[in-house]
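About this split. The held-out portion is used to measure sequence recovery: a designer receives only the structure tokens and must propose an amino acid at every position. Recovery is the fraction of positions where the proposal matches the reference. Here is one held-out target exactly as it appears in the evaluation file.
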């Protein structure tokens, strides 16, 4: 058989994946369970595309583990290996979700998959990013598809994107890999998982949760002007920082604040004092008096936080709330459906 890659050809992520694959399903199960879904998805993609890694390469990469893994053994990748490794570490729902992503992404490029995504979803994603990102993405899509996306971008976004495309946008290889991972994790995976089970309003609401407040407000205003009933349904199922008062029980706020780093909480609250003061009052009012007073004093002494950073911190709080709800540790209040 042809020789596989050498140790020098492997990235850090590939080397980490090789170590886990060498441990086998039982040995790796405990480690995988602690990695979080995003890192597990990266592991599954790499191992699914991995060929045979010869023993000498394994020796070089994981020399400190030779006594445990018997360094002369070859390690084989492939989709079956990915299935075997993950089946012992994950619950069935998470396993099915990750493997669906892996099987979808193994044999096609991200630009092919992006071209098959809904034009409105791609336009919404790019409208929230820097124009250089839009230029790079559109330059790699099929011209007819890129044109359709460009037509859906707000003029204030489309013009700088076009100007950057005229200069043949280039991007560092490492940065491009990060961009591709963001597109995969924050757009394509969301569309795949939501598309089969969620209504259009729920899918669009999920995308709106990931754009800036200003962009979200503009999109919703335009949607309300064109389709007011659909816009109302989207707003009903959205879950943003502003919705915490309606969706979260006061008794669960302490658990939520423990789920995020304190600097994230502080940045979210500092920005929230300007954008959503009632939410900040609700959060502080649901904490113990001593803790609330300390946080309030720290907020008063804290320098203003850039809006983008503050909104990102608020997004992390929403993710923490949803994670706690998925684990059954808190129960969210469900949004009321509109009356017929």
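Reference sequence for scoring:
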């Amino acid at each position: 058989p042809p020789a596989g890659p050498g140790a020098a050809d492997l990235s850090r992520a590939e080397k980490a994946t090789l170590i886990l694959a060498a441990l086998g399903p039982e040995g790796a199960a405990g480690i995988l369970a602690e990695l979080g879904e995003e890192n597990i998805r990266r592991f599954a993609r790499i191992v699914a595309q991995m060929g045979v890694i010869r023993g000498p390469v394994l020796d070089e990469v994981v020399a400190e583990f030779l006594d445990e893994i018997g360094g002369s053994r070859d390690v084989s990748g492939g989709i079956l290996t990915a299935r075997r490794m993950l089946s012992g570490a994950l619950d069935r729902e998470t396993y099915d979700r990750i493997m669906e992503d892996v099987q979808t992404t193994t044999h096609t490029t991200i630009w092919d998959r992006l071209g098959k995504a809904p034009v409105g979803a791609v336009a919404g994603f790019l409208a929230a990013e820097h124009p250089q990102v839009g230029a790079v993405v559109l330059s790699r899509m099929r011209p007819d598809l890129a044109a359709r996306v460009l037509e859906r971008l707000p003029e204030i976004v489309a013009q700088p994107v076009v100007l950057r495309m005229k200069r043949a946008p280039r991007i560092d290889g490492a940065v491009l890999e990060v961009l591709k991972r963001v597109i995969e994790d924050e757009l394509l995976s969301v569309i795949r998982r939501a598309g089969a089970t969620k209504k259009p309003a729920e899918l669009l609401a999920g995308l709106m949760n990931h754009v800036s407040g200003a962009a979200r407000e503009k999109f919703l205003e335009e949607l309300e002007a064109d389709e007011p009933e659909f816009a109302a349904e989207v707003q009903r199922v959205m879950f943003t920082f502003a919705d915490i008062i309606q969706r979260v029980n006061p008794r669960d706020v302490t658990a939520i604040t423990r789920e995020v780093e304190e600097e994230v909480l502080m940045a979210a609250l500092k920005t929230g004092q300007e954008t959503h003061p009632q939410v900040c009052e609700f959060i502080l009012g649901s904490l113990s008096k001593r803790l609330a007073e300390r946080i309030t004093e720290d907020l008063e002494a804290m320098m203003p936080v850039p809006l983008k950073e503050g909104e990102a911190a608020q997004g992390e709080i929403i993710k923490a709330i949803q994670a706690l709800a998925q684990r059954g540790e808190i129960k969210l209040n469900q949004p009321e459906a509109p009356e017929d």
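Annotator remark: The longest strand covers residues 52-53.
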